[in-house]
Design goal:
The protein has 48 helices and 62 strands. The protein is an alpha+beta fold and 1470 residues long. The chain is extended and about 165 Å long.
């Protein structure tokens, strides 16, 4: 809470009546223009300081009146415009009349405006002359005007358009010189990063403005004074405003029309909106524009009108008589302070009204709208009619012009103090409200000074204002002044008969008369004392250099109780101390500080004097510095409790703190939300979500502080809305100052004058609710109990209160258990209270898994409904919360909770609420909720049964079939059959329609209804009626429509209707089919029907037996199709014999397989050459898990199946069955017969058996492996895996021979032979001799081929030697087994042909023909070369070749081989 000190200006004696006031926007300077009250026109201007002190050189008077006063936006310069057109300037150096020379303006100055940065000044007069002046950096007007414009009309208003966004170089340079690093970086181009845009240089001045004339014309004025008319209004203009964010010009006319205009760059205007404002017209009105979107108007009415342009909302702020305002009090003027969010208004009766704006409610955290945002404060009473108000300066001072004088109101924080059961609250600058709680008295104390501080004891009150100290003593029921003396101490403390004040480097101990009797000295290092506080017999002192010291005051003189503690050594980033308090035993000191940047620290520090240690509790994180000390005995419930409480404490900072005046362990602190947290809380509160968690603004937190256990959280609760601030703590109460104008229901009243408002409120400690008046023994016991309960020592806790017999004490303990969640303690408390119902409820609630749910049950039993609601919400047991709301009669909350979170019980909630409403007599609302619960079909007729007319209206309105049926039944019971039929028809209750029609004898109508609707129940009822009338055909018909076939069958048998009987039996159940079959069998006629019915009913044995007996073979075939493995084996065997007899072997085989006679089935397939299909084979395959047949039998059966498939050529199926039987060799043989190479390769890969590898490789060799490299690769792989290296060697040998015979590629053949030799040498053959022989042959072949390859290579280098070697090689024995003779002769022939030795070449050709009589010569020698040789020796080519070919063909008995192109051979190793 704050109070306003009023300072009357110290005006010179010659000054007249104030006419105009103006504050400097930065400096605490107030300019006042006055006019003479005499008949001669004269005036003066003066400048005053914040407390009204007149500045000596700031007075000027003239024989004419001042018109306008205007301050420079940043410098201490004042411009004054006078009636004669003169403009005079004031600065710290005095008045200057020569900046704007006389004669410039020849009429009264009507406009005098500085630009935004003060480097331009616009002046205009009543004659319509406007001038733009340049102003230098010192604020002096320079030279002639920049521009001049004569409009010839009275100019009245001017407003500057704000400059474009950008950096002001002048201001930026000043900031850089001042040491602003950001400003220095802006000038340092090297530090501008790549991602940073260079700073923009905007216009240094708002050199564009708008001016208006008396006839409503608005002009656009540029820097040089050039102007352009942009718009004209319907009448004179009262106010010009500019909406900077949207760049919109707003105009209010004398007729209170508000219009908005968008001004283009070319000077064109566009009207966006025009509305009529509420208020009186034709008289002066004060209009202000604030907060970028708010427009306030005061037009001499009893209200202030407010229009929110952003939300398009308007409202009226009124005065409240209950706060002290008078009826019919009009408002003359208004002023708004944006930094405080306060709207001030001056009234005709000398009162200042203030509305404080709050966007978010402090209760619940919801966002407030419209008028609710503005809270009216208590009025400030002044004198006379207030004609002008102005907020100003950086200190937010309020100046008031009233009753011929000016007052300056400065806001001061309210002084308050509580000590020794006495509380003092400042209610006015020189008035205190005193409350004596020991005696119950209350009185007001008026002082001679403006109080800036107060200190109370049980016998005296000390007040001071940093200049004087006044002492008041209790004298009977009132206070008297015991002394007053000068003292410039800003802080004072009192103990017994001593007053403690401060001066540089020492504390003065004074008597009550001001005599200094002792000095407590501090050295230069320790600093100057600036904080004092006494508690018990101890004084704690804090200095401006963050030192703390405690003194013992129990003796005649103060003695040091501790060494001076330097906090700066232990607290980094320490700014200064803001408050120090000590405990009653002097062993603990609590300290609040600010950070180095001036912001409040979130920690409260504790200095242990005895241990000389410093620790703290940090409200930012909600934890102490030594967390282990805060909760020594943690249980699961304590952890859960601690988390929720600590979460509420987080994001705060301490604002005040106190120790109990008698209990040294008990400490209390007041903590407010930090600025960032508060903003976030406001944002969160403004979001309309059901799950929003809102943090209260101020919390009060109490702790126990001991050396052994450290800091222990004892309790926390939000400060009440009606409480202003915490004053102190003295068990059993917390003491709070109350907000002015807020009423509160006090449980106790204090004596004294009823006209004195109660300014102090008390709240009992949580443990002392109901024990406020207990004696000291009980109080100590309760404190010990609370302390031991906090540390978790339950034994000591119970020892502390075991002697307390009061039921109130135990109830209070039980209530504490709700807060602490200690249900074990609660059980004991309920027992001592004799609360049997609560004990039972707590025992039944033990099955709930959530702790909070169990605690909520306890809270309900103790009547703590708000706590129960909060606990149910915390644990998210919305089902129990719904029940709780219902039990407590909060039905609307119950429904809202069920709709949002507990939809399972939503209909139940609606139903219970409807029952409640019915009991309360509200049938209309009960009916609605019965419908929501979907129980209206029963409950509404029951409820309205006494009012049949209302019930009939409801039935017709709801159009519900069940209700129509119920109403029809009711009408039928009342014998109103026609109406009943009508409602039965609406309800589509065809049974009831048929029933009533039958009752009335309208059986034909009933038949029509049954036939049209096909309703089973209606048809059945009608069939019974026809049966009773012996109309069998109709009865059978309707029994059939009702699907009551047994009744229809019964009638058919009784009436001999055999044809109908067969059809009905097939539609009916198996039991009815068997009965009908027996009927046909007994009659001995139509036995085919009997067989069919036995078959359809599933009685196959009887059907087969009857079919055999009556020789119905066609029926027997149908029966056999439905036989399965679950049928009787004898029946299956009998049917299979029947099919074999009639040569239907396939059906016989199927039945034998179904009967699991697999061998007979296979034998029949072989005998009759029946193909075994895959499906049949699968049916004959016995599962491995089968317990009926052994594994040997299963394998034998599978092999027989495979043998049959193999005989029938179904190789794949045979392979599958052999594999299932485990005989992979036979499976491979069957697969080889199929010739499916892909499956053979796959099966070989998965079998991994040597024999199978060899078989597969042998098979693959039979294919054209020469053209498929993949086959060759598999052959080599399979022989290798099968370890058949001798066979692999043979394959390589074959490969070599292919390379020689087909492609004449001896190099690849040599590689293949090499591999063959390697494999054969590694092989382990049964006959070593045979292996040696084969190796020798392979070695000879390898040597011969290698020699021929070398000859070919030698031919390139030495042809003669190569030819010689060829001659030698031709003489080698068994040459043709390794190298073809034709290839050697071909080399010789081609060489001599190329050399031109055709005779020698021809000789070799003849020799070659002799040695190869059956060979085709063109296969070895190129045909062109042969023709060239024949031509050279003169032998006919054609005849020779043809003859030789014919001879060779005749000898070979085959066809002529064509020449094969040579293809490369990949070495097998490659």
């Amino acid at each position: 809470m704050a109070v306003y000190f009023d300072h009357r200006i110290e005006a010179p004696g010659t000054v007249g009546s104030p006419s105009e006031i103006a504050w400097h926007c930065i400096h605490p300077l107030l300019a006042v223009a006055s006019v003479s009250t005499s008949s001669t026109p004269a005036g003066s201007v003066d400048v005053y300081l914040e407390q009204g002190e007149h500045i000596p050189n700031a007075h000027i008077d003239r024989p004419f009146q001042p018109g306008l006063i205007s301050w420079h936006p940043s410098k201490r310069i004042l411009a004054v415009g006078w009636q004669t057109g003169v403009v005079i300037f004031w600065s710290d150096h005095g008045w200057d009349e020569h900046q704007i020379t006389g004669g410039t303006h020849r009429a009264e100055i009507t406009i005098l405006e500085w630009s935004s940065n003060g480097t331009r000044l616009i002046s205009a007069d009543k004659a319509g002359v406007l001038m733009v002046w340049r102003v230098d950096q010192h604020g002096r007007v320079q030279g002639p005007p920049l521009g001049k414009q004569d409009y010839g009309k009275h100019l009245v208003h001017c407003i500057f358009k704000p400059p474009a966004p950008g950096e002001d170089l002048v201001q930026l340079a000043k900031a850089a010189v001042s040491g602003d690093e950001n400003a220095l970086d802006m000038f340092n181009w090297k530090k501008v990063g790549k991602g940073d845009a260079p700073f923009k240089v905007g216009l240094q001045e708002g050199i564009v403005c708008f001016v208006s004339t008396t006839d409503g014309i608005v002009y656009y004025v540029g820097e040089k004074g050039k102007s352009l008319q942009i718009l004209r209004t319907d009448g004179p203009i009262r106010k010009l405003m500019y909406m900077e964010e949207k760049e919109i010009l707003m105009i209010v006319t004398e007729a209170l029309f508000l219009s908005q205009h968008r001004i283009g760059l070319d000077g064109t205007s566009q009207e966006l909106m025009k509305v009529k404002l509420s208020g009186k017209t034709g008289q002066a009105a004060d209009i202000i524009w604030a907060e970028r979107d708010l427009l306030f108007t005061a037009a001499g009415e009893t209200v202030v009108r407010l229009w929110d342009l952003d939300r398009d909302e308007n409202c009226a702020l009124t005065l409240d008589e209950h706060l002290g305002f008078s009826t019919g009090e009009s408002i003359n003027c208004i002023s708004y302070c944006e930094s405080k969010g306060i709207l001030a208004a001056g009234t005709t009766k000398g009162q200042v009204a203030m509305w404080r704006r709050a966007l978010v409610s402090s209760i619940g955290g919801h966002r407030m709208q419209g008028k609710d945002q503005w809270k009216l404060q208590a009025p400030i009473d002044l004198e006379g009619n207030i004609i002008q108000l102005k907020w100003g300066s950086s200190k937010n001072l309020l100046s008031v012009n009233s009753a011929g004088t000016v007052l300056i109101l400065s806001e001061q924080v309210m002084s308050a103090h509580f000590n020794q059961q006495v509380a003092a609250i400042q209610v006015a600058p020189n008035q205190l409200s005193l409350s004596f709680f020991a005696s119950g008295n209350q009185q007001m104390l008026r002082t001679d000074i403006h109080v800036k501080g107060v200190y109370v004891t049980k016998e005296m009150v000390v007040v001071w204002n940093a200049k004087h100290i006044s002492v008041f003593e209790l004298f009977g029921p009132s206070m008297r002044n015991a002394g007053s003396f000068p003292c410039d101490s800003c802080v004072v403390a009192v103990h017994e008969e001593s007053i403690y004040s401060v001066e540089p480097n020492r504390v003065q101990v004074r008597t009550l008369q001001g005599t200094v009797k002792q000095l407590l000295v501090f050295n230069e290092t320790e600093g100057n004392p600036c904080h004092l506080q006494t508690c018990g017999n101890f004084l704690v002192v804090g200095t401006d250099k963050a030192h703390v010291k405690v003194f013992d005051l129990s003796r005649r003189e103060a003695k040091s109780h501790s060494n001076t503690k330097n906090l700066a050594e232990h607290i980094p980033n320490l700014g200064s101390i803001t408050s120090v308090k000590c405990s009653s035993n002097g062993n603990n000191v609590s300290i609040l500080i600010t950070k180095a940047n001036g912001s409040p620290d979130s920690r409260v520090f504790f200095y242990d004097v005895e241990m000389d240690t410093l620790h703290h509790f940090d409200f930012e994180i909600g934890k102490p510095s030594n967390e282990n000390c805060s909760m020594p005995r943690l249980e699961e419930s304590d952890i859960e409790k601690g988390r929720s409480e600590m979460h509420e404490l987080m994001g705060r900072y301490p604002i005040s703190h106190f120790w109990d005046q008698n209990e040294p362990r008990l400490f209390v602190c007041e903590a407010s939300l930090a600025a960032s947290t508060a903003r976030q809380s406001n944002i969160t509160a403004s979001m309309e979500t059901s799950s929003t968690e809102y943090k209260v603004d101020v919390m009060v937190i109490s702790f126990f502080s001991t050396q052994e256990h450290g800091l222990l959280l004892q309790d926390s609760f939000p400060k009440m809305e009606s409480h202003e601030a915490l004053l102190g703590l003295e068990v059993p109460y917390y003491y709070f100052s109350k907000k002015s104008g807020v009423t509160e229901n006090e449980p106790e009243s204090m004596s004294g004058s009823t006209s004195i408002p109660q300014m102090v409120a008390r709240r009992p400690l949580r443990d002392f609710v109901g024990l406020e008046d207990c004696d000291k023994t009980t109080r100590d016991a309760m404190l010990n109990f609370s302390f031991y309960l906090t540390i978790g020592d339950m034994d000591e806790a119970f020892k502390s209160i075991k002697l307390i017999k009061s039921e109130t004490v135990w109830e209070n303990m039980a209530r504490m258990c709700v807060k602490t969640r200690r249900l074990d303690v609660a059980k004991v408390c309920l027992g001592n209270m004799g609360h049997a119902r609560g004990a039972r409820a707590l025992r039944e609630a033990a099955q709930e898994p959530e702790l909070d749910a169990r605690v909520a049950t306890l809270a309900v039993q103790l009547g703590m409904l708000e706590d129960a609601e909060r606990l149910y919400r915390n644990c998210k047991r919305f089902d129990l919360l719904t029940k709780f709301y219902q039990a407590s009669g909060q039905w609307q909350k119950a429904i809202e909770n069920a709709e949002a979170f507990d939809r399972v019980h939503l209909r139940t909630t609606y139903y219970n609420y409807a029952k409640h409403l019915e009991a309360m007599g509200d049938q209309h609302l009960a009916l609605s909720h019965y419908e929501k619960s979907d129980t209206h079909r029963f409950e509404v007729p029951r409820m309205l049964l006494e009012d049949l007319q209302a019930l009939e209206i409801y039935v017709n309105k709801t159009k519900d079939r069940s209700l129509w049926k119920w109403w029809a039944q009711y009408l039928e019971s009342q014998a109103d059959m026609d109406s009943a039929l009508k409602y039965y028809e609406k309800a589509q209750d065809y049974l009831s329609l048929v029933r009533v029609h039958c009752y009335l004898g309208n059986i034909q109508k009933a038949s029509e209804i049954a036939n049209e609707t096909g309703n089973h129940a209606a048809s059945y009822h009608l069939a019974r009626q026809y049966e009773a009338r012996d109309d069998v055909k109709q009865a059978i018909h309707f029994y059939t429509r009702a699907q009551a076939y047994n009744n229809a069958i019964r009638l058919c048998k009784d009436s001999g209707l055999d044809d109908h009987l067969m059809n009905l039996s097939l539609l009916s159940s198996p039991e009815d089919m068997m009965e009908a079959a027996r009927y046909y069998e007994e009659k001995g006629l139509q036995m085919d029907r009997a067989v069919m019915l036995y078959h359809k009913s599933g009685h196959f044995s009887k059907a087969v037996e009857l079919a055999f007996a009556t020789q119905q073979f066609s029926a027997l075939q149908l029966i056999a199709e439905d036989l399965d493995e679950n049928s009787d084996p004898a029946l299956l065997s009998r049917c299979s014999d029947f099919f074999i007899e009639h040569r239907q072997f396939e059906k016989a085989v199927e039945l034998l397989v179904t009967a699991k006679k697999y061998h007979e089935a296979l034998q029949l397939c072989l005998e009759q050459n029946l193909t075994i299909t895959e499906d049949m084979a699968e049916k004959m395959t016995v599962s491995k898990d089968s317990k009926e047949l052994s594994d040997d039998f299963r394998r034998e059966l599978l092999e027989r199946i495979a043998d049959c498939c193999l005989r029938q050529g179904n190789y794949h199926l045979a392979t599958k069955k052999y594999t299932q039987a485990g005989n992979k060799t036979k499976a491979m043989r069957a697969l080889l017969k199929s010739g499916d190479t892909e499956k053979i390769v796959f099966f070989t890969g998965v079998s991994r058996q040597r024999e199978i590898y060899i078989m597969a490789a042998n098979y693959l060799q039979s294919l054209d492996w020469r053209k498929d490299p993949e086959i060759m690769k598999n052959i080599i792989s399979f022989y290798t895996k099968g370890r058949a290296l001798d066979l692999l060697a043979g394959f390589y040998d074959a490969c070599a021979q292919v390379e020689i015979d087909e492609y004449q590629n001896y190099e690849k053949a040599l590689g293949a032979l090499t591999e063959a030799y390697k494999c054969l040498s590694k092989a382990k053959m049964r006959s070593p001799g045979e292996q040696e022989e084969q190796l020798g042959q392979l070695q000879n072949k390898l040597t011969t081929v290698k020699k021929f390859v070398q000859i070919r290579r030698l031919y390139e280098e030495d042809p003669k030697e190569a030819l010689k070697q060829c001659e030698i090689l031709l003489g080698a024995p068994e040459l043709d087994q390794a190298v073809r003779t034709g290839d050697i002769y071909a080399l010789l022939v081609e060489h001599h042909a190329q050399q031109g030795n055709f005779e020698v070449a021809y000789k070799y050709m003849e020799e070659m023909a002799t040695k190869l009589p059956s060979g085709n010569m063109t296969f070895y020698i190129n045909q062109q070369i042969a023709e060239a040789i024949y031509k050279a020796v003169g032998v006919p080519v054609k005849d020779n070749i043809v003859q030789r070919v014919r001879r060779n063909s005749g000898e070979d008995g085959g066809e002529v081989e064509e020449e094969v192109a040579e293809e490369p051979y990949d070495d097998p190793e490659d």
